[in-house]
Design goal:
Helix content: 25-40%
Shape: elongated
Number of helices: 3
Structural class: alpha+beta
Distance between the termini: 126 Å
Largest sheet: 5 strands, antiparallel
Strand order of the largest sheet: 5-8-7-6-9
Radius of gyration: 37 Å
Order of helices and strands: HHEEEEEEEEHE
């Protein structure tokens, strides 16, 4: 009996020692221990959802109505009618946009640039009150200019320029020709030089020119053989947008 008792005692001790040595390292958390962590995660998700809802509600309360474009697109020179305008709401930084309450002020005016459906507009997208963008003897032509074909400091709306056709870079034996002595810039976008990187980019402008010069100017613009030379302020344009006054 004593031999049997002494044999069992080491075996039980060994099993107990094994559990004591390795049990703490391999033991997985029980369900009760996981529940507090899951509850904390649920509380965090609920708080984040509530904060998001509050932010949306706050921004919704600060939204205002502004003038937008209703048709698919409007070309430069289009006379604005009530059906051309729609109401859209925005929140945040909306400086410069036309409030919906002022929409009637722009009826009867003309567009100065291409406008597209749902685009929010500014006063610069329309002519001044009473001004006509395209006189009977005038035409608006778009021109894309790279570095060396326009002043490096750019062109602004209202600037006067000479429109000159130059020979192409390869195999053109022609001479420079002035197509329009004085043309008004009616819209601009971009720049010939990126102000941040100084890399060459593209300046897009629209010029008001005599109708009889629209074909050669458009052809030279497509061939990228146009140069615009900026003239002195007050230069009288070949075609005026204001019936004879600058």
């Amino acid at each position: 009996m004593s031999l049997s008792s002494s044999t069992r005692t080491p075996s039980q001790g060994t099993r107990g020692a094994g559990r004591s040595a390795g049990g703490g390292a391999t033991r997985l958390p029980g369900r009760r221990e996981r529940r507090p962590a899951l509850a904390a995660l649920a509380v965090i998700l609920i708080l984040l959802g509530a904060a998001g809802s509050a932010l949306i509600a706050l921004n919704s309360g600060n939204r205002s109505d502004f003038v937008a474009i209703a048709p698919d697109k409007l070309a430069p020179g289009h006379r604005i009618e009530p059906k051309d305008l729609s109401r859209g709401d925005l929140a945040g930084a909306t400086g410069g946009l036309i409030p919906w309450s002022e929409a009637n002020k722009y009826l009867g005016r003309y567009t100065t640039t291409w406008l597209y459906k749902d685009q929010f507009v500014t006063p610069d997208n329309f002519t001044k009150d009473g001004a006509k963008p395209i006189p009977a003897d005038g035409a608006l032509v778009g021109v894309s200019l790279e570095a060396g074909r326009a002043p490096s400091d750019g062109l602004d709306v209202g600037d006067m320029v000479s429109v000159i056709r130059v020979p192409a870079a390869t195999g053109d034996s022609g001479i420079p020709t002035t197509l329009v002595k004085a043309a008004e810039i009616t819209s601009t976008a971009g720049a010939v030089t990126d102000p941040k990187t100084s890399a060459s980019t593209t300046l897009n402008v629209t010029v008001l020119i005599p109708t009889d010069q629209s074909m050669p100017v458009a052809a030279a613009a497509a061939a990228k053989t146009l140069v615009l030379v900026k003239l002195a302020p007050g230069t009288r344009p070949d075609v005026s947008r204001t019936d004879g006054t600058n």
